[in-house]
Amino acid sequence: MTQNQINQSAWAEKWPAPAKLNLMLRITGQRSDGYHLLQTVFQFIELCDWITFHPVDDGRVSLQKPIPGVPEADDLIIRAAKLLKAETGCEQGVRIEVEKNLPMGGGLGGGSSDAATTLVVLNALWGLQLSMEKLMELGLTLGADVPVFVYGYSSWAEGVGEKLERIDIPEQWFVVIKPNCHVDTKEVFLSKDLTRNSKSIRIADFIAGQHQNDCLGVVRERYQSVKDALVDLSEFSEARLTGTGACVFAQFDSEEAAVSAYRSLQKKWQVYLVKGVNESPLFSKLKSGNIS
Ligand SMILES: C[C@](O)(CO)[C@H](O)COP(=O)(O)OP(=O)(O)OC[C@H]1O[C@@H](n2ccc(N)nc2=O)[C@H](O)[C@@H]1O
Ligand SMILES: Nc1ncnc2c1ncn2[C@@H]1O[C@H](COP(=O)(O)OP(=O)(O)OP(=O)(O)O)[C@@H](O)[C@H]1O
Questions:
Q1: Which of 20, 104, 251, 279 has the most CB atoms lying inside 10 A of its own CB?
Q2: What is the mean pLDDT of the segment spanning 84-112?
Q3: For residue 4, what pLDDT is reported?
Q4: Domain boundary residue among 117, 138, 167?
């Protein structure tokens, strides 16, 4: 099959942009530019936005339908596509269709994942041949969570989230609650009450059960619905915050136990029943579709 034939078939397809969970998150310091130094563990979950790329002749980049509440020029999908063009001088255009399933401001990394899928898939469709390292570097200029979605594997992350080490962790079931509020990441990181001096730990400490999220205290105090969700979820299993929230989640050893908690919580909350995966669904699809 020629590159052109591969591109022709892939243009019409829907590409996943999965969510992530931060299975733990420690803030160990702060850089001089204000960004916080973290230790975190990312795992993907099988809950995805879906993105389709349509070729256009006029060289422009646009969204078929802007995401409500996000001006098109600010959308991370548009910014990612424009960044690729600026970096490579590519003159091709694209109209991008998004099926948005991930709640915004939920700590599930939806905007970052959309940006990463755009970088990875357009790099292939446009035949740009940028390396994964280069795409991660470009992605980091869009957001701290973009590199892990480009990398595509569960990771132990340090720095601001860009120093990644692949880890394989059990692929368990999760119940995720989206409280009815939108947490602003920047506001949480600006809080004077945030813990910023946690001691660094090792991967083995995480495996042994060290699941602390240093944003939890600040977020729980500011957002009553996050606090309530944590209380309800902890009746079933250890309840944790992902990123800066608002979503909270709990891990289950069996699908049956997860389904039972899901059914019960569904009566009161917006809730998702999802499986954790170590390989990003984007990469599973790229491998099966033969473009990389
Ligand atoms: C909290 C996490 O979700 C953990 O995965 C991420 O670190 C946040 O990643 P993100 O949403 O892509 O965040 P960005 O868009 O890069 O940053 C939003 C704002 O949060 C603050 N920020 C973010 C990440 C970080 N390590 N330190 C920070 O202080 C910065 O003020 C920044 O202006
Ligand atoms: N394609 C996009 N999808 C969602 N949000 C976007 C997108 N492009 C830009 N944004 C902006 O990013 C903000 C954060 O959205 P996102 O869904 O990434 O939050 P999040 O899950 O809390 O992210 P994180 O876990 O990385 O902090 C939104 O409120 C919106 O203004």
A1: 20
A2: 97
A3: 46
A4: 167
What's the CA-to-centroid distance between 143 and ligand 1, angstroms?
7
Same domain, 118 and 23: yes
User: Has 29 been labeled as part of a binding site?
Assistant: no
Question: Residue 55, annotated ligand binder?
Answer: no
What's residue 290's pLDDT? 53
Unique residue bearing structure tokens 């879906």: 50
pLDDT band with cut points at 50, 70 and 90 for residue 6: low
Residues 8, 9, 13, 17: is their CA dihedral positive or negative?
negative
Phi-psi label, residue 113: left if phi above 0, alpha if psi -120 to 50, beta otherwise: alpha
Residue 20 annotated in active site: yes
Ligand 2 atom closest to the Cα of residue 20 is 25
pTM of model > 0.80: yes
Asked whether residue 112 is domain-assigned, the answer is yes
Count of domains for the chain: 2
What ipTM, to 2 d.p.?
A: 0.94
CATH label of the domain that carries residue 230: 3.30.70.890
Q: What is the pLDDT of residues 57-75, one digit of tens each?
A: 999 999 999 999 999 999 9
Q: Are 164 and 155 in contact (CB under 8 A)?
A: yes
Burial class of 58 by CB neighbour count within 10 A (0 to 12, 13 to 18, 19+): exposed
Q: Which of 49, 75, 114, 145 is catalytic?
A: 145
Domain containing 180: what range? Answer: 173-277
Claim to verify: residue 108 and residue 215 sit in the same structural domain: no
Question: Is 264 within the bounds of a domain?
Answer: yes
Q: For the segment 168-195, what is each residue's pLDDT rounded down to a tens digit?
A: 999 999 999 999 999 999 999 999 999 9
